[in-house]
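Worked example 2:
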Amino acid sequence: MHHTSRSARLWRPLACLAMLLALAAGIGLRQPSPPDEPRFVLAARAMVDTGQWLLPHRGNELYAEKPPVFMWMQAASHQVFGGWNLAFLVPSLLAALLTLWLTWDLTRRLWNRRVAWWAVLALFSCLQFGLMAKRAQIDMVLVAMTTLAMWGLLRHLLEGRNLTALWIAGIAAGVGTVTKGVGFLPLLVLLPWAVWRWRGRALDRPAVPARTLWWLLPAFLLGTAVWLAPLGIALLSDPDPSLHAYARELLFKQTGTRYANAWHHVQPAWYYLQVMATLWLPGSLLLPALLPGWWRRLKRLDGRYWLLLGWCLLVLVFFSASPGKREVYIFPMLPLLCVAAAPLLPGLLRRAGVRWLLLAYVALLAVGALYIAVNLHGGSPWAHAQLARRDMPDSLLPVLGNWLLGFGVVLAVLVVWLRQRRAGLLVVVTAVLLWNLYGWGLMPTLDPYSSASALMQRVGQRIGPDAELGLVAWREQNLLQADRKAAVFGFKRPWDQQWQDAGRWLAQAPQTRWVLVLDEAMSPCVDRAQVIEIGSSNRNRWQLLPGTAWRSDCTAHLPSDAADPDTD
């Protein structure tokens, strides 16, 4: 027993250090890449540059698709750390670490410390958690707020009256709501709690008074006031129509309308089953084995499972009912499912079939990495085609191949060494290696092309340091990566209207002004002989034209208007 205690004191700090280094691997070595990162950093950079933090901007337009809280975090991170390449990823990293700690502490309180470590390692090993921790998207911060709210609610509902925890839960749910509109979802746990309380009334089980839950209302409103209060003051004091249009767009169209009548990302009702089957690997491999154990505990009226699993089921139903679906929407379920799975994991890993399944998962990763590495080193037609589609040079083939080859070889050695008897350890080590590969190798290598910095560097070199640049039908990464202050003529405006303003701008100084435009948005009023094919980025082709190519007397129009490029 003394030896076991010493081993635990040794491996637990090492596990924490390994997870921290894996999640932080490569931070500062890459730039924001689509679809979501550039727009958030663009808005945060505008806040820092202008000192106007209340309303986020995308170029010269208000950005009304998301509240500004996450962009505040990025801007504040920049003020602390300086340099956007580091600052834009810090909020997600800190949110991931907070989520891991909350998962550990909640499981410790509901069960014990040993089970808590199973929950943390299970969450860290799932693909979606590591991926979101290393992406500058709102969802990792939302998950941290959701998990914090659930931490407070479950402590109050299961451990006994705890108004401090209840207030923390309400405030976290409020802040989560003004971070991304679905931050209120933790409050749904009150429904399975009420059913569980009703089902267990004959057992004379002590329960917290329902009247204490009214404290959630002022706490929730206090959390939302972080942003809604200054926004309300601005609306009352400023009659600007654009401000009121911004509030209507964000508070109504981007919330209720988007949920009930989504206009993009439309997916079938079963879409999230495939998300769980893939992005929750390797945890999803254990779900069939977990279900019988969960069912037995639900029949015993174990309140911990009623609240954890009942809430997850409600979240799944809530998002499945909307026609618009993205893989990140159900991400808040994952930490709570890991909490519910943790007590069962030691027993499952004693089954040979489960261990072989996890071993096969790691072996498949190793084989896949080695196969791709061989194709990259061999310069196969498939490898060249993949780079050509993204306008990437062939010089990347050996670099990417070396990283994947090293990853595959190490995994293969670990599979042979640890085998199925240590399948649990193998899965955790695989996650550590995977996120180090992602952070140190793959993303920095691909960064110039995924971030559009290579394209914008070519643009800057072609037009020279003294020229002025304008953007038409642009993407956020184009404006973010421009090496000078660029003129923009709207983002969501129809392309014809953008060209009307861009044409007047070009005509004022045709010898020194240039426009970068998406190829499909090229105006018929441009002299094609002067157009330069400047390259591709993010699967879009871009063209560059000098001011002299614009024909001011032309009145032709594009055949169709711009589609909304937003992909939130």
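Residues 561-568 have pLDDT under 50 and may be disordered. The first strand starts at residue 57 and ends at 58.
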